[in-house]
Each structure stands twice: as structure tokens, then as C-alpha cells.
């Protein structure tokens, strides 16, 4: 029997991309393992959403200093900032690196960034395989970390959109056609460039996500400067029913992020056949492909013209089916199967 351990400790942080990654990978692996394979999940004590035959090792705060799981064939650290690294308990190890966004965080000084890079280099040196979630992420890793080519793999994240066909009661129902965006309210998401798009039209802008720090003030200041504050709605964290209602009913989806390892909301919006407007930074052109429209810079007049031209193009050519087909390239079942293939090369 082959024992495969996975670090799902990040399931204690709900409503972010890493939570979704752990949740979906955990579910799908249970569906696709063979009879000679057993899964071991390291996760929060009270987390009970997985059903199936697996071993559970509950998270404890002291595991950072003392962690003694059973001997495993493979240990998969699903994120580079994991709480534990039981290298001596696994014959082979895998490290998934989602991004190096800390390098683009203005709140971190050079000394702290160098410390984090040094820690990551040590982990990379000790692991048997490094998985990046996009070509862009792998390129960024290679620019800052020394990693042999034979250690590198790319496995794209998946996307699964839940359907709530009977739901039609969002806490905030826009009074006008609206643009939608979602994500943690952080400076790297670049949301503050969006209010200017409401000039010369009557749209609303809906931004959902948990605020971090005081960046939300920057968005509000830009909305005031553009004279559109009344039409910019910052909703905070919203449940899935509302999130998918906004995807389904928006005029367009906006995602001007400047630091993105993958960009799952882009795929979610494309599932509904929506026009998506992205920055051309980091991994987003790789994910959006030819099915998206891109902001090459954030000059207000340029963005307004790009948006207006994109909406006209979408209405004239109606590429809904092509956009939806593009979204199908990224599935959680494919993600889990690719990881299982990788695990099986190691025992």
C-alpha cells in the first residue's frame, strides 16, 4: 500500500484561492486513487467536508516544532508557506509553488524578501519535485530560485463553478447594468484603476472580497476623483450563491491584477460566457488566452477605449461559445489526475 500525504492545513483560511485549491484537490484525489493507494490529509481538526477512505492527521500549533506522521511514500506540500515539512518521513517530496507575490508586496522590505527567498531556496533544494501552477509562475521561480530543469513540472489549477439556478436574491441587487470583480482587497489586485471605467456610461461597478489593510480607501478615493462614487459598490466577502449570481448577470468581468499566479476568477467568469477584461501582467494572458481582452497599461483614457472597443467587439461577434469552451481547459479533475500521475512516478 502506497501512502500519499498532503498538507491541507490552509483549509483553516476560508474564502481564498488556496482554500479552494486544497478543497478541490482533496475531493478529486479521493475519487481517482487506486486500491493500492492510501491518502493521508493533514488538516484542521474541525474540517469534515471530505468523505471517503483516508487517514486524517489534525493540525496542532506545535507541529511546526514537533511533527511525527507515519512513514509515507510521498509528501505533497501544496503551498510553499506550509506549517510542516516532514522531509525525513517521506521517501519523496513534492512542493507546489503558487506564486512569488511577496516580491511585489510594497509592505515588505528588501531584507524580508531576501529572507523569504532564502527559506524557499532551502525548501526547493530539499524537495524532489517543484510544481508551478502556470508557465509564468515557473518563469518567475527560475528568475529568483535555483532549481534544476529535471525537478520542474507545470500543473494548471482547475476551476469548478457551482450552479444555483433558483437563486435570485443577492444582498445587493444592482439597479443598472454592472461590471463585476472579485478577490482579496489588496493593492496587487489593482482594483483602484476600475472606477474610471464608469465615466461616459451608466454602469455600476461591483467589487467583492475581504478587505486587507487600508487599500479599500484607495479605491474609494479613485471613485471620488472620477465622480462615480455612488456607482461603486464594495460588498466585502459574499457567499457562493451571490458570487455566481454576479458572474452570471454582469455586463463584463474585470480583473486588472498585477500579481497573479493563476487567476481562477477569470475561468469562473468565462464559464458563463462573459467578456473578461484583464491586465496583461503575470499569468493572466496565459489563462485568458485569445478569449479575453487586455489592458496593456492603466492610463484612464486608454483603459476606457479598450473597454468600449471590447464591449463592441463582443456584442458584434458574440463569442460566448468560444469563451465557455476556453474555460473547460481548466478542470479540477484534470488537476488531480495530473498530480496522481506525478505521485506514481515516485514509488
Plain-language structure description:
Helix 7 links the parallel strand 12 and strand 13. The N and C termini lie close together (10 Å). It is built from ten helices and 13 strands. The strands form two sheets. The protein has a seven-stranded parallel β-sheet with strand order 3-2-1-4-5-6-7, sandwiched between helices. A six-stranded parallel β-sheet has the order 10-9-8-11-12-13, with helices on both faces. The longest helix has 18 residues. The chain is globular, with a radius of gyration of 21 Å. The chain folds into two domains: 171 residues, Rossmann fold (3-Layer(aba) Sandwich), CATH 3.40.50; 150 residues, Glycogen Phosphorylase B (Rossmann fold, 3-Layer(aba) Sandwich). By secondary structure, it is α/β, with parallel strands linked by helices.
Lay out the secondary structure.
Elements: E1 2-7, H1 17-32, E2 37-43, E3 54-58, E4 72-77, E5 90-97, H2 110-126, E6 129-132, H3 135-144, E7 152-154, E8 178-182, E9 204-208, H4 215-226, E10 232-236, H5 240-249, E11 252-255, H6 264-271, E12 276-279, H7 284-288, E13 293-295, H8 300-317, H9 320-327, H10 332-344
Parallel strand pairs: 1-2, 1-4, 2-3, 4-5, 5-6, 6-7, 8-9, 8-11, 9-10, 11-12, 12-13
Helix pairs in contact: 1-10, 6-9
